[in-house]
User: What shape does this take?
Amino acid sequence: MKPTLPLTARAALLSFILFGATVLVWQLAIESSTGTAPNMDPELAALLGPQAKGQSAFPAPMAIFDELVRHVTDPFYDAGPNDKGIGIQLAYSIGRVALGFGAAALVAIPFGFVIGMSPLFYKALDPFFQLLKPISPLAWMPLALYTIKDSNSSAIFVIFICSLWPMLINTAFGVGAVRREYLNVAKTLELGPFRTAWKVILPAAAPTIVTGMRISIGIAWLVIVAAEMLVGGTGIGYFVWNEWNNLSITNVIAAILFIGFIGMVLDQLMGRVQAAVAYAD
Amino acid sequence: MRNPLISVENLAKRFPEPSGKGELTVFDDIWFTIEEGEFVCIIGHSGCGKSTILNALAGLDEASSGVIIIDGQAISGPSLDRAVIFQGHALMPWMSALENIRLAVTSRFPEWSKAQVQDQCEKYLRMVHLDGAHDKKPAQLSGGMKQRVGIARALAIEPQILLMDEPFSALDALTRGSLQDELMGICKSTKQTTFMITHDVDEALLLADKILLMTNGPNARVAEIVVNTLPENRSRDSLHKHEQYYPLRNHLIEFLVTRSRELASEAEGALDGRQTKVVRLDETKPETVTNSEPAPLRAVNE
Ligand SMILES: Nc1ncnc2c1ncn2[C@@H]1O[C@H](COP(=O)(O)OP(=O)(O)O)[C@@H](O)[C@H]1O
Ligand SMILES: [Mg+2]
Assistant: This one.
């Protein structure tokens, strides 16, 4: 019998191989596309710059790696409105998500609680949620810009809207689905409405509520990039758009990797919270 | 004669028919009393409304008509004076065994210090032999241990009345036996007034002072009240050695197998709830009790 590594070690090894292979193929593809372009109109060649010489504008992995190192080593420089360190841009985006998501949680959890406790409210409001939920949050942007008249607040409002529904719907559902048994125990112990909500309903519904929060923060992070592309000024979305206008594909890719990384961290944080409130039935 | 602690008078439960017209009567004309310190079991087939009666006693469910009078007062909702042990253990799964009991104790004795509360919780965990399981969550406990925590939680609030809905039906025979012994010890030594639903004839004969027999639903009634004439000092091992054991057991089983059905199909007037037959198998002729005149409250509830 061959000795086998534990599953985690084998998975890590495979991840590493896949990563290495991707980078290698990428690098080879870029090198092979380098050559001389046959009979091209010189004016067009001048316009196209490096591409005219047959060089790809698409960066090689090493170029991106260098760019990442540059960003990580100097994330917070500020050289004017169009040239800020990626750390500053990410901080703007995270700040907006935190504000929009936080405000949404403050509204959705208490409101969802009330809806979940009342079958009447639940039934009466359900059609509205069903209608409002599938609307792309960006569709609210013009309305927000028109009423709030401030691009930064509008972006936060869009985050608020997109974070609201999953938390509201999950809270209402989780609260409504608390087992009758637990509520009967609360009644026989004469806990009263406030202690029942705090000691019984909230912990019983917490896993469902936190699942809603995890979905919300994921959506919020997806939406903030698009929202910042629209409103401009600051943030990682604006950074991506700005680098695209500068035709700096290297920076665009570097930003994409940072966006993925931050999204992963946010999701993992909510995963921690989820594990903390989970219980086995 | 002094008044009983609990008096159930003319209790009935009706639900609207699913078709929309008419009503389905689950049970009707239920009268019985429980004395202080008495252990009463109720036996009957599934669906005859035993849990509904117990929930009405707990104040969790409202009867369609009739009153339940405890200590001279018609009850109007749940109270810490009445502890319930549910069929499913109904422990909060996110709380440890100790926290589950603490929730009950702090509700009952809000003025107690932390140390007093802790002492009370530990005392009752010890009483059900769970000293080592303080910090375990219900999911980490076996079925029997969970039900022990449920018992400890109910007893820790030192209730006037203990209500139990088939507390041991989900347990294996060995666990059930040892829990029955413990429960009997605790209830006897504290003279705990108890109302319990069971499916198990031997369990009723071991624990109960009197046993209410319910006919099959719908339209169920308490057909008779069997007085347990086995000696006070009975135990699970010696139960079958008493001469009264087999006659009592056969009487109960015969009721469950045939009479509960026959009586249910007989005319409505065959049983009078206010004159429920009391059966003592150590005497030749059964006596009947006449329940006291209905309290004036009854008119309000009907
Ligand atoms: N909401 C309801 N609507 C109609 N019938 C009900 C409702 N709840 C309970 N019942 C009926 O009441 C009867 C008594 O139930 P239950 O008290 O649980 O019986 P038991 O505990 O004796 O098995 C059952 O036959 C059940 O069908
Ligand atoms: Mg039942």
